[in-house]
Every structure is written in structure tokens, then in C-alpha cells.
Design brief:
The protein has 15 helices and 19 strands. The chain has about 475 residues and is an alpha/beta fold.
Length: about 475
Amino acid sequence: MRKLIGWLAMAAGLAAPATAQTRADQRQFFGLYKELVETNTSLSVGSCTQAAAQIAGRLKAAGFADADLHPFSVPDHPKEGGLVAVLPGSDPAARPMLLLAHLDVVEAKREDWQRDPFTLVEEGGFYYGRGTVDDKAMAAIWADTLIRFRQEGYRPNRTIKLALTCGEETTFAFDGAEWLAKNRRDLIDAEFALNEGGGGRNDSGGKRELLAVQVGEKAAQNYTFLATNPGGHSSQPVPDNAIYQLADALERVRAYEFPVRFTDTTRAFFAATAKQTGGETGAAITRLLANPNDKAADAIVSRDKSLHSTLRTTCVATLLSAGHAENALPQRATANVNCRIFPGESVEATRARLQELAGAKVTVSVNPPVRPTAVPPTLDPKVIGPMQAVAARHFPGMPILPLMSTGATDGIFLEAVGIPTYGAPGLFLEPDFNGIHGLNERMRVSALYQGRDYLYDLVKAYAS
């Protein structure tokens, strides 16, 4: 409690949040943000290397030495490079902190969008463009924070590192965060990292409802189901059919529920959710927390697809391919099954369970790349405390919930090498998730600037 009071006292002296682009530092930030959004960083035609170089130029102009700027790439992926920037701290005994964000974006076709996805457009209180949220809002805020610190002459107590990477959005792309974790662990060494995955939620009218900090995530992994058969003429069908064998296997996967699991984070999340929700669902959550094997309670809670996915590993068929001719019995049938694996459960153990479900006539194999086993960070008060304290200043009365992401971020690669990674709160999104990965992605203007001020003060709270 004393520590929390101390954090609150410090947060009370930090800058008040702003809601519009009215200050000089906000105009400077907007220039960085606009340039970043309008730099195409999609895998097909874009360049993360260019985006990283542009940010490095801004950092250098703010006073960063060449020795503190570390651009990186590999020869076979020259456009998928990134940047690590370092702001040295004054206390060599204080372990560094790491700010992580990815520069790459999901593909966006101009003909599908109402506006050019790579031109930042302000309309109706929102900024529109691919990456306005995922993840260029955070990338721009982290870079802008270091620029402001340097311009203000602020020297942190602990060293602050910034890693801007590529490859997060595409399975087979060169992943900069993974490369750094495996090849330059020294460059990104930190006591903890702040990443995407947290945030906040608005209601349909733009009113703030809650904040969330991501503490852990699932591991995303794809598997191939394969059925083979000698085939034959379609005029003489037999029961032994590769398509039917594959269909039967997928039906068993559909019917199967992986067991309920809890981490410290999801247990805290569900306990808070039970209180907020109340009624039949709240009571069922309480029963499930007491007994994860309560099938009746599980059935009630799992009516909500988000809660269902937070409780367990999930696997679902996403792609199918079968047959070689209209008038022939199929010789081959394949399916891709995408799994989101609960922390602590391995890729191989999940494959073995899928193989049991598939049966002897269908083989199940792991598709590369293979992600590491998810390692959830702890609910460390040294990390969570400042988030709560700074939020009390910027978003008074707003509850902060810990959550485990059912998706996947690059944080999993850092956690695999011992860097606990947290999805920072602060950027509030709309109920429809702002068009992320879809059409007409957008960021509420007021939420961007308010979140920027929150995250700036949060980094300073840790660094001081």
C-alpha cells in the first residue's frame, strides 16, 4: 500500500492529459505518426527498413548518438529490417526497460477501402489508415517519447530501450523480435518490456469503460491434417475415401473441448468479470474458478466466445484442399488447423492430442514456423503498480483488468528468453475493434493523444 501511495503521489505531478492536437509537442508527434502511417510497410510491396530509417533520422535529429541507434536487417530480407534505440540511464545498477512495437501492417487493397489505406485521413473524429492502430500508434508513441525525453534533457534512472521490428503480422515473414531474441539478446536485455496487447475500451458513444493490461498470451500454431488414398474411378465409390476420412477427423476436433486452465492472470480476470457480470454467468464463473471440471458451469461461461477462448487451448479448421479430378476418387485431402495454445502447454503435446482425435487414417504434423511455449509473466506489482497509479491521474475511477490475449504478439519471443512482456494500457479502442486487420482501420483522435500522454508518463514513472 505504501508503494502504491508513493506511485500515486508521483503520478499527481505528471502532465495532465490532452484531447486535441493543440500543443507544439503534439504537432511534432503528429508529423511522426502521419509519416509512419503513410509509409507502406505491408509485406508485399512495403518496407519496414525504410520506416525504421525514417524514425532513426528523427531520433538522431533530437540528439541521439549514432552509437545509440542500431538498425538491423538480414541479407535475404532487406526490406524487413528494424531499429533498436537506447537512451542510457544514470544508474548502472538499475536494469533497463524495453519498449516494443512492430512496424509491419496487414495487407490493404485500395479498391476495397473507402479511402486510400496509406494516406492518413482525419474524418469524424478519427484518423483513418492502415496501421493507425495496429501497431503504428504504439510505435509512434514510443519513438516520440524518447525524442521528447532527449529534447527535454531528461535522463532516466534506468536505461530505456526501444525495439521497432517487422514480421509480426505474417507467419512466414522474417520476424525482427524473434531474430533479436535469438541473435542479439544483449541488445534488448531488459528487466521487463512494454508491448501492444493491452489498451482500453470505449462504449459505442466513445465513453471510456475500462482499461486492460495484457499479462501473457497464447501461442499460435498451425497443423496440417493429411488423409491419403489410392483413389480410383468415381463411378465405383468405396467407403475408404480421403475426403470422408479428413471430414470425420475434423468433426471430432470440432466436438472436442480442451480442458479448462487458469493462470494467475486469467484467474484474476475471471474473478473481476464475475463481479461485473453477475447473474447466471457470474455465478457460473465463480463455480468454475472453484472447480475447473464443472462442465455445467463451463457450458454457461463458454456461451461467450471470448470467455470460451480465454479458458483453454482452442483449435479450428481454417483451410481445406482435396481431390485431383471431378471424376476421380480423391487421393489426397488436407486441412489446416489453427490452434491457440494456452500458456504452459506445448506445441508437441497439442499435436499428440490432435492426432488422437484424428485417428489412424489421418496424420497430423506441425507446420513451420514453430512458436515457443507461451510463458506468462507474473502480476508483478513493480510493473502493475505504476500502470494503476498513472491511470488514476489520467483516467480517474477507471478499473484496470489483467487479461491474457487469445491472439498472439511478438512478446512470446521475448518471454521465451526471460524478458517478461506486458501489453500496456492507455489506448482506448471502439467496440468493433477499430477495423484492425480489416477495412477502414481507424483511431479515435482524442484517444490517440490521451493515450500518448498516459504512455509518456508511464514510461517516465518506470524510468524514474
